[in-house]
Amino acid sequence: MAEDEENISDFVSRGLSDFKYDVTVVNNGLDAWKMLEGGEHFDLVMLDIRMPGMTGLEVCEKIREHFGYEIPVLMLTALDTTDDIVMGLHVGADDYIVKPFRFMELLARIQAMLRRSDATKSNRTLACGDLHLDSSSHKAIRGDYEVDLSIKEYRLLEYMMEHHGEILSRRQLLKDVWNKDFDTNTNIVDVYVRYLRSKIDDDFKQKLIHTVVGTGYCLRPEEE
């Protein structure tokens, strides 16, 4: 955990220790990156965005650049606008929790992230039309082309492929992909669907992602 507010890091580390998690705490981003770069293994990394040395965004970018998507990353921050959420997730964070937060909510998010991390270690391939998703390598193939996805784009596409043919509401996607069980006017789902469309649909005649007006989205091969 990289957090420069000692009261928060103490609160989180004590709580997680009570649930038998081993927690390592540093108070700046540079030390966090040095530990990771030096070969220390962590099942999950929690990063504050505003830290001395390196920001949480910079650390997350380096984690994805050097280690791929094997390490789940959770952002802890006081920033809570849609743009800030998108920025954190776009650099590769798996989830985002806004201060102040309740410990049990944080614990639930951590447990869900660790379960997903364990699940994606198993080999499986999802398919919808000529789109294939390999969970072991986190690669998407559309036709003969490999698609480069961010971690959140991958998670959204994976969820939609697991439920292909189903109509998925924005609220359902917020809850199950972003772990946010609330109803707001955030457009983060629409933003990431646009990202996905630009990568898996725009250059192909047959479209896979369909808008269901007033409800949400559906992933299915377009009928010709």
Would you give an account of this structure?
The protein has 224 residues and is an alpha+beta fold. 42% of the residues lie in helices and 17% in strands. It contains 8 helices and 10 strands. A 4-stranded antiparallel beta sheet has the order 4-5-6-7, with helices on one face. A 3-stranded parallel beta sheet has the order 1-2-3, with helices on both faces. Helix 2 packs parallel to helix 3 (56-67) and helix 6 (151-162) packs across helix 8. The longest helix is centred in the middle third of the chain and has 17 residues, at 103-119. The chain is globular and about 55 Å long.
Gist of the model:
The protein has 224 residues and is α+β, with helices and mostly antiparallel strands.
SSE topology sketch:
Blueprint: H1 6-18, H2 29-37, E1 45-48, H3 56-67, E2 73-77, H4 82-90, E3 95-98, H5 103-119, E4 125-128, E5 131-134, E6 139-142, E7 145-147, H6 151-162, E8 167-169, H7 170-177, H8 188-200, E9 209-212, E10 216-219
Parallel strand pairs: 1-2, 2-3
Antiparallel strand pairs: 4-5, 5-6, 6-7, 8-10, 9-10
Helix pairs in contact: 2-3, 6-8
Biggest β-sheet description: 4 strands, antiparallel
N- and C-termini, Cα separation: 51 Å
Helix and strand sequence:
HHEHEHEHEEEEHEHHEE
What percentage of the residues does DSSP assign to strands (E)?
A: 15-25%
The value of Rg in angstroms is 18 Å
Strand order of the largest sheet: 4-5-6-7
Helix content: 40-55%
Give the count of helical stretches: 8
Specify the overall morphology.
globular
Low-confidence spans = none
Q: Give the integer mean of the pLDDT values.
A: 87
User: Based on helices, strands and strand pairing, what is the structural class?
Assistant: alpha+beta
Find the count of extended strands (DSSP E, 2+ residues): 10
